[in-house]
Specification:
This protein is of the alpha+beta class. The chain has 2 domains: about 15-355, 3-Layer(aba) Sandwich (Beta-lactamase); about 370-455, Lipocalin. The chain is about 25% helix and about 20% strand. The protein contains 10 helices and 19 strands. A hairpin with a 4-residue loop joins β16 (about 420) and β17. It is globular.
């Protein structure tokens, strides 16, 4: 996302007679390589182009379920939740409950006094939404009981203890630093101010007024049945995430249908206070502090073209991308049940395609097929350093590799013996002796080769 959306050189939409079928065909042409290359397991895509829209589904829900995802398939949208949290702030401002300059501490329980870098410059609500609060990306007392569900047990007591003891290293507004903690805190204080939980506030102030029937945190039985099973990059089944006090940072689940409706509401805000709030959140509230930063609305990132608003999100088993541009009158939603940021590039391509650019389908490295029985010699444990062991397992024709203290990832064959990661630039080469036994594996990463000897 470093060079996001060079749309300044692309003209506005032409008055062509592109129909829905043509639009769907163009989406298919750009999206299908992500399925063919096994980059994603399942994916739902929605686009808006003027008065036309299209929704497409790809892949399958899981290895054991060939159902193709559709417009009602439910996904975790991760950090796109921050856009909704920014809108909740804008809604509270529009209804004169707070201002953007309200100090955060004013909305906290009286028993919690925040540490400040400079007592004369308090952390204000706008700082939380624009990632300029001086708070770190994550609290130093996160310490999840289950690393596969890292936010589930971060409750009000832990958050209060952190706020009482942490002294920011930077003054508010001095530096941009993306912060899940800050966005989660914003959701928490807005909820505390209105005496409801974050999920209830989301429903009352945004989801229900906009008709977003599947945009929620807690799923009902019907929504659970439509939830796409989560996968890590490489198609390995994973876990859903749950949130407690930091829900505003990434707890929301939604569908392409709902996200398109949300995008449409941002392109053409409704009348009334909610429309005023949408416009307020859309406005630029923070210019880039240095070259690496994006301008910020409330929750929204502003692309380099100055007009596209965007956010992406990833949890343990999902990735989501949302783009909207009022001048071009376009929006793109990409939701997948695979934790891979590769689909952000697809979302960017779709925006450029809608703007009139001739986009070529992405080319992926061809995935070779290796028969499952040929993988068995590799199964085992290999020590690369004291306390660092590669554990190699298989699932069907997939080879899975985990390193001590890290998640297990799928690796892909360039040959029977050389395999590569998609999550990082690294390869593994298995060394097999004349008897067909594998006695070591060589890791090549960042120009360095390391040999791990088989220990089991």
């Amino acid at each position: 996302m470093k060079q996001l959306l060079a749309l300044a050189t692309v003209g506005l939409l032409s008055n062509s007679s592109t129909n829905a079928a043509d639009l769907a065909s163009e989406i298919d042409r750009l999206a299908q390589p992500y399925v063919n290359s096994e980059t994603v397991v399942g994916m739902s895509i929605g686009v808006i182009k003027g008065n036309r829209s299209a929704v497409r589904g790809y892949g399958r829900l899981s290895t054991g379920d060939a159902t193709v995802p559709d417009e009602r398939t439910v996904y975790e949208i991760g950090s796109i939740s921050k856009v909704f949290t920014g809108l909740l702030l804008a809604d509270a401002v529009a209804n004169e409950r707070v201002s953007l300059d309200t100090p955060v501490e004013e909305l906290l329980p009286s028993s919690i006094k925040m540490q400040q870098r400079d007592e004369a410059i308090p952390i204000r609500l706008r700082h939380l939404s624009t990632h300029t609060s001086g708070l770190p990306r994550l609290p130093d007392n996160l310490e999840p009981a289950d690393p596969n569900n890292p936010y589930a047990d971060y409750d009000g007591k832990r958050l209060a203890n952190f706020l009482r003891t942490y002294r920011p290293r930077k003054r508010p507004g001095e530096r941009s630093e993306y912060s899940n903690l800050a966005a989660g805190l914003l959701g928490a204080v807005l909820s505390f101010d209105q005496e409801v939980e974050y999920g209830t506030l989301l429903g009352q102030r945004i989801a229900q007024p906009l008709g977003l029937t599947d945009t929620t945190i807690e799923l009902d039985d019907d929504q659970k049945a439509r939830l796409a099973p989560p996968h890590t990059e490489g198609g390995i089944p994973d876990h859903c995430w749950t949130f407690d006090q930091l829900a505003g940072a990434g707890a929301i689940r939604s569908t392409v249908d709902d996200m398109l409706q949300f995008a449409q509401s941002n392109l053409y805000p409704p009348d009334g206070k909610l429309g005023e709030a949408i416009d307020l959140a859309w406005q630029v509230h923070q210019q880039p502090i240095d070259d690496a930063n994006f301008a910020m609305g409330l929750g929204w990132h502003v692309a380099r073209d100055g007009t596209t608003r965007w956010h992406n999100g990833q949890t343990g088993g999902y990735h989501a991308s949302l783009f909207a541009n009022r001048e071009l009158d376009v929006a793109v939603v990409v939701l997948t049940n695979t934790a891979t940021d590769e689909v952000d590039q697809l979302a960017e391509q779709l925006v450029r395609m809608l703007a009139g650019s001739a986009e070529k389908p992405r080319e992926f490295e061809t995935v070779l097929k290796v028969e499952p029985e040929k993988l068995q010699p590799y199964v085992g444990k290999y020590q690369v350093a004291p306390g660092a062991v590669f554990t190699v397992t298989t699932k069907g024709d997939q080879l899975l590799v985990g390193l001590t203290g890290q998640p297990t990832f799928r690796v892909y064959p360039r040959s029977n013996t050389e395999w590569y990661y998609k999550v990082v630039e690294a390869t593994l080469t298995f060394h097999v002796d004349e008897s067909g036994q594998c006695n070591s594996v060589e890791l090549f990463q960042n120009g360095v080769r390391q040999t791990a000897k088989r220990i089991e």
